[in-house]
Amino acid sequence: MTLLFERNNWFHLVPIDGRDHPKEPEPTWFGDSIGKWDGDTLVIDTVGFNGWTRLDTVGHPHSDRLHLVQTLRRTDFDHIAYTVAVDDPEMYTKPWTNERVFTRMDGELIEYSCEENNKDLREGHIKAWTPPPPKKKQ
């Protein structure tokens, strides 16, 4: 399964083929995820974070010991019930959870590019690349 984000064109792969986490996962921004079905609920278990990201746009931190368990369950055609359990003994005194409902989007993911106020690009300080002229045969 692949999770797509309408930010920085991010994506995250979640194998659902029954594999386990590696014994020593390589730390990454999104961590190492594995998914499995529990009835009609997809359970995603994630470990192996590099500790450099934030849990949300407010900036709640986490360490490289972060362990997330997320669940996704379709409640009807247009909605998915989502939960995330956060366990990070270095940053928080006890595990905590968050719940929300996702509503099916009527449209397409849009392009993300952080160039709208890039004065260097618009005012010509950054020059467009042009190929070098062909070499003359001797």
How would you explain this protein's 3D organization?
The protein is mostly beta strands. It has one domain (2-122). It is 3% helix and 34% strand. It has 1 helix and 7 strands. The protein has one helix at residues 119-122; strands at residues 2-4, 11-13, 32-38, 41-47, 67-76, 79-87, 96-103. The strands form 2 sheets. It has a 5-stranded antiparallel sheet, with no helix packed on it. A hairpin with a 6-residue loop joins strand 1 and strand 2. The longest helix is centred in the last third of the chain and has 4 residues, at 119-122. The protein is elongated and about 70 Å long. 5% of the residues are buried. The model has no long low-confidence stretch (mean pLDDT 88).
Strand order within the widest beta sheet? 3-4-5-6-7
State the separation between the terminal residues, measured CA to CA.
Answer: 56 Å
The total of helices stands at 1
Q: Whole-number average pLDDT?
A: 88
Secondary structure: number of strands: 7
Order of helices and strands: EEEEEEEH
Report the C-alpha radius of gyration, rounded: 21 Å
Beta-strand fraction estimate: 25-35%
Characterize the largest beta sheet: strand count, sense, and whether it forms a barrel.
Answer: 5 strands, antiparallel
Low-confidence stretches: none
Shape, principal axes of CA atoms: elongated
Count of individual domains: 1
